[in-house]
Amino acid sequence: MDPMPTFAALSSATGVPVDTLVHYALVRWVSAGSEALLSIRPQALDDLIAARDREDWPAVAGLIDWLEAGR
């Protein structure tokens, strides 16, 4: 399905150039994957909480060191 007629109609209705609308749509589409990843709870956090709950302080330190290495 060709999306260009939709962009042309939206451009006519809003006065925003078609190229700008296409660019905006592509940026939103690409960034949607990153937004989804950011909404997922990281496994490292669950591992850190579990290590703390069992009072495994060497494991807590190791996880913190591992996280810090990725900065």
Describe the SSE topology.
Blueprint: H1 4-14, H2 18-38, H3 43-53, H4 57-69
Helix pairs in contact: 3-4
SSE pattern, N- to C-terminal:
HHHH
- Spans of at least 5 consecutive residues whose pLDDT stays below 50 are none
Q: How many domains comprise the coordinates?
A: 2
| Average predicted confidence as pLDDT | 90
Shape: rod-shaped
The major beta sheet can be summarized as:
none
Distance between the termini: 43 Å
How many helical stretches?
A: 4
Question: How much strand content do the residues show?
Answer: under 5%
Instruction: Give the C-alpha Rg.
Output: 22 Å
Binned, the helix content reads: over 70%
Number of strands: 0
Q: What is the SS-derived class?
A: mainly alpha
Short description:
The chain has 71 residues and is mostly helical. The chain has helices at 4-14, 18-38, 43-53, 57-69. Helix 3 runs antiparallel to helix 4 (57-69).
Structural description of this entry:
By secondary structure, the protein is an all-alpha fold. The protein has two domains: 40 residues; 31 residues. It has four helices and no strands. α3 packs antiparallel against α4. It is rod-shaped. The mean pLDDT is 90.
Q: What attributes does this structure have?
A:
mainly alpha; 2 domains; 71 residues; 4 helices
